[in-house]
Amino acid sequence: MTARLVFENMKHQPMRSLLSALLIGVPVTLILTLVGMSQGMLKDAADYFARKPHVRSAVGVLMQPVEGITMMVTGVDIPAYDAMTGGFRYVAGGDPKNPGDIVIDQYYAREKHAVVGGQITVLNRHWHVSGIIENGQMAHMVVNLSVLQDLLSATGDVNSIYLKLDNPAYIQEVKHALEADPKLKDWPIYSTEEMASMWNASNMPGLTPFIRVVEGLGVVIGFFVVCLSMYMAVLQRTREIGILKSLGASKTFILRIILLEAFGLGVGGSVAGILLSFGSYYLIGALVPASIQMKIVPQWWPIAGGITMIGAILGAMYPGLRAAAADPIEALAYE
Amino acid sequence: MSEGGIIEISDLHKTYRVGEVAIPALRGVDLTVQKGEFLSIVGPSGSGKSTLFHIIGGLAPPTSGKVVVGGQSLSALSDADRTRLRRTMVGFVFQKFNLLPNLTARDNIAVARFIAGQKGPVDSGFEEILRMLGIAGRLDHKPSELSGGEQQRIAIARAVVNRPAILLADEPTGNLDTENSQAVLELLRDLNRRLGQTVLMITHNPEAAAYGHHIVHMRDGRIIERS
Question: ∠ CA A44-A46-A51 to the nearest 5 degrees?
Answer without folding.
Answer: 110
